[in-house]
Amino acid sequence: MVESLEQLKARVTSYLDTHLANDVDQSTLAASMQYSVLAGGKRLRPTLTLATVEIFGGELTEDVVRAATALELLHTYSLIHDDLPAMDNDDLRRGAPTNHRKFGAGMATLAGDGLLTLAFQWVTDNQLPATMKSQLALELAKAAGPAGMVAGQARDIEGTGRRLTLDQLRYLHRQKTGALLRYAVLAGGIITVQPAAVQRLLAQFGSSYGLAFQIYDDLMDVVGTTTAMGKRVGKDAAEHKNTYPGLLGVTGAEEQLQQALERAKNAQAALSQLTGRSFAAYDDFLAYFKL
Amino acid sequence: MVESLEQLKARVTSYLDTHLANDVDQSTLAASMQYSVLAGGKRLRPTLTLATVEIFGGELTEDVVRAATALELLHTYSLIHDDLPAMDNDDLRRGAPTNHRKFGAGMATLAGDGLLTLAFQWVTDNQLPATMKSQLALELAKAAGPAGMVAGQARDIEGTGRRLTLDQLRYLHRQKTGALLRYAVLAGGIITVQPAAVQRLLAQFGSSYGLAFQIYDDLMDVVGTTTAMGKRVGKDAAEHKNTYPGLLGVTGAEEQLQQALERAKNAQAALSQLTGRSFAAYDDFLAYFKL
Questions:
Q1: Mutation site, B19, B22, B26, interface A, largest A CB count within 10 A
Q2: Mean pLDDT of A152-156
Q3: What residue ranges in B77-227 does DSSP mark as E strands?
């Protein structure tokens, strides 16, 4: 029986709640890591992995949940470092003070470093086959590293105050947000040992979904409210960040969002056709984008 | 034929020089990562791994060099983040401006994040057996993560200005410096598939060597010069850091250093006896400590 998104999300949060502190050996560091990890959030990335495992009939064993939940550790590190005074200098995240506002920039830097490193521990410290663990660690490193997410962040810093072309902005978004969401979907295929043709379509779905996600995030910074978003809005424009609405206007950005969603749906349909399985669970993820 | 330390070091530096930029996809990020990685340094950690592989008759293939050199990426990340204004706020490293003095704290944070993540990529992105890669990634994550090096850093920040006991200080040093040097030696045993009893002795050698290394570093901060060390000295005392000479005086710290070296030599002798191999190559590493 396939679990709902809410059930999968609850599994992830419960796993984090129970296991995170076990792997941290200093009390302030543990408090700082837990503060951000347990602050809530959609748990979108590990939930995408677990939903994909379920679609392929895989069992959600504790080992699978551990490997999938590693991605939430990694995602949380990226938020903590992104909020630092030396980076975006944000005071508010998920409706609460950011990590460095609570623990200081030094401890926040270490909490991020600890979460990033622990992600690779959780991916490999389980009873899944070694080939699977090694592949997960490699794909996670490529998605999160200096040719993936970290490169996107660097491009974001470097591009701030300069007007990028649409192609440059799409490339930045693919690295900064897309790579990790692409990995989230792909990890479900790795864990259920899918053939290369299926993996390619999973990567395509994840990649298009990730682009849609970042365009939507850009849009919400323009049309959302601080209360609804739990973080300061309107700051992209104030800081001369490159965004889809900044470059194309709200209507133009909405069109690009629709195109990315179309590509995601095409990949979803192709996956159904190729595998004979239902990918209806992905509809719930696509329903996230309400305009 | 066994290579000298200088030859092994040259291999590591040459590998970094040739391969680092290939895995970075943003020019300023690449420059920042290369700036610190190629600034010199003893390459002690990967050299310890490669020397251990050679002792057991293992071949230094390109895959082995890649997996071993990953540790230098990780070590460099720890230096960059440690030097940040939010941490130790250092201006000088290896005789040159620290990364954030050259590239700004935001890019320096990202360069560190990129190097840490790339370390896990290099450990898994090679043709070694999957069981080996998965074990290397796991041990590296445990050594570097929130129950290892990052915990030691947190303990260092938290302990500054408070007087620790000798036991507390030793524990801090084992996490902050010892864990990674322990991994460096252990990795050589993993790559050459040594039995558990040998791995235990390798870990013991690495651990004692790591403690000696940190005590020596503490001592050099008292008795060394800025020119010789390439970094500011005398700063531990100025910043009320907990150190061996601070707690025990120079003579007491030297005694502790000798004890740690004795333990390392005992492990070295036990390794020779158990395996019937010569561990004379470790003598060159032990010769590092000149008082």
A1: B26
A2: 96
A3: 92-93, 96-97
- The C-alpha atoms of residue A46 and residue B173 are separated, in whole angstroms, by 35
pLDDT at position B240, please?
78
Half-sphere exposure of A93 (CA within 13 A, CB side): 26
pLDDT at A196 over 80: yes
* Mean pLDDT, residues A11-39 taken together: 97
CA-based torsion, B128, B130, B135, B137: positive or negative: positive
Residue A145: list chain B partners with CB under 8 A: 23, 114, 117-118, 120-121
Among chain A residues, the shortest Cα distance to B117 is held by A145
Contacts of B142 in chain A (CB under 8 A): 121, 125
Burial class (CB in 10 A: 0-12, 13-18, 19+), B120: buried
Q: Using DSSP, state whether A92 is helix, strand or coil.
A: strand
- The minimum CA-CA distance between B286 and chain A, rounded to whole Å, is 30
Just give the CATH number of A5-286: 1.10.600.10
Query: Which residue's entry shows tokens 């323009």?
Result: A222
Q: What percent of chain B has pLDDT over 90?
A: 86
Verify whether the Cβ–Cβ distance B29 to A151 is below 8 Å: yes
Q: CB–CB of A85 and B86 under 8 A?
A: yes
Q: Which residue of A has its CA nearest to B144?
A: A117
* pLDDT score for B229: 60
Task: Locate A129 and state its tokens.
Answer: 């086959």
In chain A, whose CA is at the least distance from the CA of B83? A106
User: For B179, phi and psi rounded to 5 degrees?
Assistant: -60, -40
Give the gap in angstroms from C-alpha A2 to the nearest C-alpha of chain B.
30
Q: Considering the entire predicted model, what is its pTM?
A: 0.96
Residue B2's pLDDT is: 66
C-alpha span between A165 and A168 (Å, rounded): 5
- Which residue of chain B has the CA closest to A148? B25
